[in-house]
Amino acid sequence: MPAISAADARTQIVDLLTDTVYQALGLKETLEDERKSLESQDLDAIAAAAQSKTACVAKLQVLDNKRSQLCESWGFATGPDQMQELIDWCDDSELIASRWDHLLIIAAESSALNMTNGAIVRVRQQQFDSSLSLIRGVTPGSDTYGRNGGEAGDFGRRSLAEA
User: Fold this and answer.
1) What is the pLDDT of residues 83-134, one digit of tens each?
2) Contacts of 26-34 spanning 24+ positions with Cβ under 8 A
3) What is the pTM of this model?
């Protein structure tokens, strides 16, 4: 049995989850801003979004570590069942469960947004690589390996000054 009362644990974890949900919503908003800046190709906005995203993730990591350490200090083992065990022990009003579920939904939405943003970056990179290959005078995508698995030759590896 944890050394803290169920009511005190519930209050502390709800407050922490509330802060975490707030930060997660900030990350989600940042990812939405990042997507808009990627679509408009606004380099300053992309840089600002990347900086903001890094800060949001750092804050979320601190909060999650605090949550995990708090649960451990109450006697709950680390791992995927930690929150469920805590919920089973002290969440008679289902407030913790609803905050936790809300956080998991935001995390899933943020993950999907981040994957979309990553796909946009990869498409832009492929477009850039194709354009660069054309400037170099090679077929896009052929300047890495030839049909036999060997290097295609020096033709695709010339500097732009030579092309």
Assistant:
1) 999 999 999 999 999 999 999 999 999 999 999 999 998 988 887 788 787 7
2) 26/56, 27/53, 27/56, 27/57, 27/60, 27/106, 27/110, 28/106, 28/109, 28/110, 28/113, 30/56, 31/110, 31/113, 31/114, 31/117, 32/113, 34/117
3) 0.78
